[in-house]
Give the backbone structure.
Amino acid sequence: LANMSHELRTPLNAIIGFADLLETEPVFDPTQRDYLQSISRNGRHLLEMINGVLDAAKLEARQMTVRLSRVDIGRLIEAAVKDTESLRAVKGQRSELALPDEVLDLDADQQKVRQVLLNLLSNASKFTDHGGVVSVDARRTTLPLPGAMRPDGSRTIQIGEAVLVSVRDSGMGIAAVDIPTLFQPFRQVDSSASRQQAGTGLGLALCRQFIELHGGAIGVESALGSGSTFWFALPAGPAPRGS
């Protein structure tokens, strides 16, 4: 999969790069410029899916590790909300952000936490109708978190200080029967060939793996017609190194 990913990304990067270069030329009319932007946008979407498959393969092979540094989760959230603003603008949605005055810093892999935030925010927008609301809040709290691994593969539970992040949407919601499959790889609530929302079904599975690599927990609260709240908690103390 690593070799295949490299072979796919090499020509794809050329497509994206030349599309971006052409966009800087002043000779195109608005329709042609829309076509170029479509090439670039869909190329990046395909690149994200390829990277997602590669990440899933690394996790399955236990080759994924976390690179820890001191991270301000509040600033990461603000940046992720800004980076996904265009998704909400297209659908006339608004965002609400609630952060405490204190600095929400902890030891974490900044890139992986950022990927989790971007995935949850993009999903919230994707599954929310035009004019809806996407809300994000974070706070420091005390929660039960996964602890040491037992011989049977399960984990002990320990109470510890954590940073809890929640992403809420006013979308269609999720039926209780579908919630257990959400964090499984290559699974989506609507897996039919005619489903309205595209994707590989890897996003939430990767989010779960990334959060659990930190010794944290992730979950969802939802009901049909009532929107969804996806949350994750990261231990505020030093996170475990490696996988």
Summary: The first strand starts at residue 69 and ends at 72. The helical segments are 2-23, 30-60, 73-83, 85-90, 110-126, 203-213.
